[in-house]
Design a protein that fits this description.
The chain has two helices and six strands, in the order E-E-E-H-E-H-E-E. The chain has 140 residues and is α+β, with helices and mostly antiparallel strands. The protein has a single domain, classed as Holliday junction resolvase RusA (60s Ribosomal Protein L30, Chain: A), CATH 3.30.1330. The strands form two sheets. It has a four-stranded mixed beta sheet, with helices on one face. A two-stranded antiparallel ribbon has the order 2-3. Helix 1 crosses helix 2. The chain is globular, with a radius of gyration of 17 Å. The two termini are 31 Å apart.
Length: 140
Amino acid sequence: MKMFLLLDPPRTTAQMQKVAVVHGKPRFYKPDSVLKAKNELITFLRPFKLKEPINGPVELKVTWLFPKDSKHKHNEWKITKPDTDNLEKLLKDCMTELGFWNDDAQVVSEHVEKLWSKEPTGISIEVNELTRFKEGKEDG
């Protein structure tokens, strides 16, 4: 399954949790910017939601296309924050919540890129259900 989310990719990541001390105990919470990014991703992902979640192993390929400025060229690698692993965490959390799969631990193969882009900007996502065993690697 392939999809393209036509949006300005969020720069806020799941890692950006905050901590507050309440009655001497730490309380972790997500700031409004993280909740806004999560809600936006869910809104854009919802039309692509599968009827049934994938139950087996999953391959996930994602390209993050950020709007370029005058300092960067189209399709130039984006080597600044946010980090790909943090971007992916928020995206996979949203996809799990929507039921693309049962648990993001099912994602056994990932390829992720960050690029500067003229147009369009957004997130290109490909989700593939894999066979139970990697070809040529099955034990007898």
